Amino acid sequence: MYQPGDEYSALTAADLSEKQYHVAKTDATGKLVLATAATDDIIGVINDGGRVAGDTATVQLINGSGTFKVKAGGTIAKGAYLTTDASGQAVATTTAGNRVFGRAVRAAVAGDIVEYIKYNELV
């Protein structure tokens, strides 16, 4: 089904209800899961994670426009390129081959919810 706009909705492979503002990808069956490696094919950041496996979740797409929020997994400088850590949280990167989903609008530390500008590229 075609979904125009900056959001994408799909079924989840696991309970993502506590994962709002975490980085997401799709698994081999097209279901949403947490991104767990900086080289994952990141599609966006979870806005609404659903309640149980098989529920529908909504993701803010990385190729959309504007800004959104993400949970920081470490110290992030203003303007840093963002990718994911093993927990689906945002971390700064300058490593070649990492998937970048955004740039930090402000500095943050682990656990903060930080605003980012959507950005889709490899470092």
H/E element sequence: EEEEEEEEEE
Mean pLDDT: 92
End-to-end Cα distance, whole Å, is 31 Å
Largest sheet: 5 strands, antiparallel
Which overall shape is indicated by the principal axes computed on the Cα atoms?
Answer: globular
Q: Please mark out the parts with pLDDT under 50 across 5 or more consecutive residues, or reply none.
A: none
Structure classification: mainly beta
**In what range is the share of β-strand residues?**
35-45%
Give me the count of strands. Answer: 10
* Rg, nearest Å: 13 Å
Lateral arrangement of strands in the main beta sheet? 1-5-4-2-3
Topology:
Layout: E1 7-11, E2 23-26, E3 32-34, E4 44-48, E5 56-61, E6 67-71, E7 81-84, E8 90-92, E9 99-104, E10 113-122
Antiparallel strand pairs: 1-5, 2-3, 2-4, 4-5, 6-10, 7-8, 7-9, 9-10
Describe the structure.
The chain is mostly beta strands. Helix content is about 0%, strand content about 40%. It is built from no helices and ten strands. The chain has strands at about 5-10, 25, 30-35, 45-50, 55-60, 65-70, 80-85, 90, 100-105, 115-120. The strands form two sheets. A five-stranded antiparallel sheet has the order 1-5-4-2-3, with no helix packed on it. It has a five-stranded antiparallel sheet with strand order 6-10-9-7-8, with no helix packed on it. Strand 2 and strand 3 form a beta hairpin. The chain is globular and about 35 Å long.
